[in-house]
Amino acid sequence: MPKHDHVVDRYLKTVEPFGVYNDGGGLDYFIAANEEVNDKDIPASHHAGYIAIVIGASFYTKRLPVYKLQELCSKIDHPIILLGGPDDVANGEEVKSLDSVKIYNACGKFSLNETADLVRRAKLIVSHDTGLMHIASALRKPIIAVWGSTTPSIGMYPYFGANFLSKQLTVPHDDMQVHRLWCRPCTKIGRTKCPQGHFKCMKNMPIDEIVLKVNERLGRAF
């Protein structure tokens, strides 16, 4: 499989003989007006701006353990909204217990499109390799992508489109991963458990480096 070629480009390559071409505009995601989140549905403390952290993912090996998420949120000095589905509610509550003012657990409280609207309104997205990461790129949000058992080299990293990228002074996303780990990637889409039993791809994730990237994206780097 060609490394670094995005899956979108690979898909479009297959239909070139039919005259279909890549317009460079990136992905699209549309949110109807009646599915936008009302201000009253999120805490007033987050109305001036927040970071969205996507804590969910379809597979275990693509998710940071709760204690790593707690470390991340404790070190971020900014309002945070946790995003995920109904299966992520309990983990979200554990993370929120650190600081129920700074951290709002939105997991399971909103529909997919409403959650996408929370992504649209965020200053910055920190996300595992999952659907909301791709929605964030469609909505042109800066992203810090956290990779476990999968890697961006497989070709499913945030896709912004050549036309959008050509207008940017910096790349709009960062990839955070444990490098030089011989067993990565162990899968294309994720696993229910670490086949080696150590789960170093997530347990060894450098949280301080993620926080540094967050601060850089917020213009707080020293």
Mind sketching the topology for me?
Layout: H1 7-14, E1 51-54, H2 66-75, E2 80-83, H3 89-96, E3 103-105, H4 112-121, E4 124-128, H5 131-138, E5 143-146, H6 162-166, E6 173-176, H7 200-203, H8 207-217
Parallel strand pairs: 1-2, 1-4, 2-3, 4-5, 5-6
Helix pairs in contact: 2-3, 2-8
Description:
The protein is an alpha/beta fold. It has one domain (62-217): Glycogen Phosphorylase B (Rossmann fold). It has 8 helices and 6 strands. It has helices at 7-14, 66-75, 89-96, 112-121, 131-138, 162-166, 200-203, 207-217; strands spanning 51-54, 80-83, 103-105, 124-128, 143-146, 173-176. It has a 6-stranded parallel sheet with strand order 3-2-1-4-5-6, sandwiched between helices. Strand 4 (124-128), helix 5 (131-138) and strand 5 form a beta-alpha-beta unit. Helix 2 crosses helix 3 (89-96). The longest helix has 11 residues, at 207-217. The protein is globular.
